[in-house]
Write a structure and sequence with these properties.
Helices cover about 60% and strands about 10% of the residues. The protein is of the alpha+beta class and about 625 residues long. The chain starts with a strand and ends in a 35-residue tail after the last helix.
Length: about 625
């Protein structure tokens, strides 16, 4: 049999003065496998009984034995029948199976744990190990399996008498070995009585013996628990069930429940305490009466302050209303009258808003005053709209004040845009409104704005005249620049013409005269084109000069003279007199060298005059087919 008992022999107290007898049987199945386990411990003041049904298929009942050992160890560390202790036992059993689980073997078990202090009991369950408590031959308490079948019974989808053979009876949603969502059932405390009998048994029993038969056995039981266990086992075996599995049946006979010998003393102590409490209650009643009278006087003052607050608001005296409201609010808070605290708080907020708005008015912050008066109007809704007429009048007055300054500001904008007639109209309108509402500051501001407007008009006329004269002068200067530019252009002084045209363009740009600016830009564009053409001719002339110098170095003086002549003609077309003179001097020096060269050559070697001249290439690939005479230009 699989059982473990742990007890103590010394210092017995409750256990010594009570009597619980235990008997059990636990047998293997037809394959000699027994994975059930039962263990218990009986201490001086507490006892614990654990039955486990191993769901694993191990010969040595690993799951059940580990679960029972862990649960009893956890109980022994802190014996109690509290829920915390029961939860600790069940969690310890669950963790023991999880820790021992290997890669190829996952340990699982059903378990029921019963703890008692010899006066009351509590049980915890995970799975389908069952408990029944019989009193006077009838079932007084019973556990409920944590299986799918029992859920179907609750839903009336399975008959209760079919549970033992239903295919989902071992499909458990709570069992030991669960790593997540382990939710065992823990009962309330159950008071024990003399002659109570408790049955704990695994599925090998309840699958073959129904509840009625088990109840009959307990109804006919004697005072010996082992005899009852033998009768249950005999009933089971007499059925000769096929494939009978392992089974465990435990019964506890509560022959005597512990009776506290100090009970009468505790009753006397309770009576004495009650007397003392009554004396204290009487004294407290006297004190409370005094406090009540004080509260009554406070309440009268609070209500008077509340009424005064309303009356002062109705006569628009918000300063005095604030004083009375704060006094009444302090009393309401000391009385902890939440309703009055809230109502007086609403009045206080209204008063503070009105006073803040008045302060803004005094400081000429009219927009802030208007916003604050609107807040006050919104708050008045929470106090039956008291003071709303006064607030609306102040809002209208504030709106007029703001209108005066808005009109003055609008007039300023119109004046800046030179709309003096409309600006004057707005200033006059602001002055009229300010006079109507006796707004002296606004009226003064409107008059000052009008005076400034008239001064600005006078100054503007003078400025316009000065601007007209300045613009006329600029037009004359611009025309003068254009004329000078035209003269320079006609004379071929394109750089000078460009300077004059640029000066005219800047003037017209500053004046904003787009038409004249466009005309000058066209002249500038023509001038730039002429300057570019001039630069190209200069480059051409410089090319001729370079070729002439190269020919002179080669002592081809006639050829060099021809290139100087070409350069001279280009410079002459560009009216570059200094360059023309320079080319003339170079050709004169070449004439001397030509004469010297001819003097050195014998007469017979001098070619005849009709010998054709060799064609010379030019930069533009145009050939010269005859000797050039001075003054000819190479096209």
């Amino acid at each position: 049999m699989s059982c473990w008992e742990w007890g103590t022999e010394s210092g017995r107290m409750r256990k010594q003065n009570s009597e619980i007898k235990t008997a059990f049987t636990s047998e293997a199945d037809c394959d000699l496998k027994n994975t059930d386990y039962f263990g218990f411990v009986e201490l001086d003041d507490y006892a614990c009984y654990v039955v486990a049904d191993g769901i694993d298929d191990q010969l040595d009942a690993v799951s059940a034995r580990l679960a029972v050992t862990a649960a009893i160890s956890a109980f022994s560390e802190a014996p109690s029948i509290g829920k915390r202790t029961m939860r600790a036992c069940l969690n310890a059993a669950n963790q023991a199976l999880i820790r021992e689980t290997g890669s190829k073997m996952k340990l699982k078990a059903s378990v029921i744990v019963v703890v008692t202090n010899y006066v009351k009991m509590r049980y915890g369950q995970a799975g389908n190990v069952r408990l029944r408590l019989y009193r006077d031959g009838f079932v007084r308490y019973q556990s409920t399996d944590q299986s799918l079948t029992l859920d179907l019974v609750k839903e009336e989808k399975v008959e209760p008498d079919k549970v033992a053979i239903h295919e989902e009876r071992n499909n458990l949603y709570a069992y030991l070995g669960q790593e997540k969502e382990f939710h065992p059932y823990i009962s309330k405390k159950i008071k024990l009585a003399n002659t109570d009998a408790i049955a704990l048994y695994t599925r090998g029993i309840w699958e073959n013996i129904d509840e009625g038969e088990l109840g009959d056995v307990y109804a006919e039981a004697s005072n010996e628990p082992q005899e009852l266990v033998d009768n249950v086992e005999e009933l089971l075996l007499s059925r000769q069930p096929k494939n009978l599995g392992k089974y465990t049946f435990v019964t506890l006979f509560v022959n005597k429940v512990f009776t506290d010998p100090n009970k009468k003393r505790r009753i006397r102590r309770i009576i004495m305490i009650t007397v003392v409490v009554l004396v204290i209650v009487v004294a407290a009643a006297v004190i409370l009466t005094i406090l009540h009278n004080r509260r009554a006087r406070k309440r009268e003052k609070m209500e008077l302050g509340y009424l005064d607050t309303i009356e002062y608001i109705q006569i628009d005296n918000y300063t005095r209303a604030q004083e009375r409201c704060e006094e009444a609010l302090d009393l309401a808070e000391s009385l902890r009258d939440r309703a009055m605290v809230k109502e007086l708080g609403d009045y206080k907020k209204l008063i503070e808003s009105v006073l803040a708005a008045q302060e803004h008015m005094d400081g000429q912050r009219y927009a802030d005053a208007q916003r604050t008066y609107r807040e006050a109007a919104a708050r008045s809704v929470y106090v039956d709209s008291i003071g709303l007429d006064y607030i609306n009048d102040r809002l209208a007055l504030t709106a007029d004040y703001i209108s005066v300054y808005d009109l003055i500001n609008l007039g300023d904008v119109l004046a800046q845009n030179l709309q003096y007639d409309k600006a004057e109209e707005k200033y006059l309108e602001a002055k009229a409104i300010a006079g109507k509402i006796y707004f002296d500051d606004g009226r003064k501001s409107a008059i000052e704005a009008l005076e400034k407007l008239y001064e600005d008009q006078k100054a503007e006329k003078e400025a316009e005249e000065a601007d007209r004269k300045e613009q006329q002068n600029q037009q004359e200067s611009g025309a003068n620049y254009v004329t000078q530019g035209d003269v320079a252009f006609a004379q071929g002084d394109y750089e000078g013409a460009r300077v004059y045209y640029l000066s005219a363009q800047q003037l017209y740009s500053d004046m904003g005269d787009q038409a004249q600016q466009t005309a000058v830009e066209e002249k500038l564009q023509t001038t730039e084109e002429k300057i570019e053409e001039k630069e190209l001719l200069k480059e051409e002339a410089e090319g001729y000069v370079q070729e002439a110098e190269e020919a002179a170095e080669a002592k081809e003086y006639t050829t060099a003279k021809k290139y100087y002549l070409l350069a001279k003609d280009v410079y002459a077309s560009l009216k570059m007199d200094d360059k023309v003179e320079e080319m003339t001097r170079k050709m004169e020096r070449l004439d001397i060298k030509i004469d010297e060269q001819e003097a050195e050559i014998p007469t017979e070697s001098v070619p005849a005059q009709d010998t054709p001249v060799e064609t010379m290439p030019s930069d533009n690939n145009v050939g010269v087919e005859e000797e050039l005479s001075p003054g000819m230009i190479l096209e």
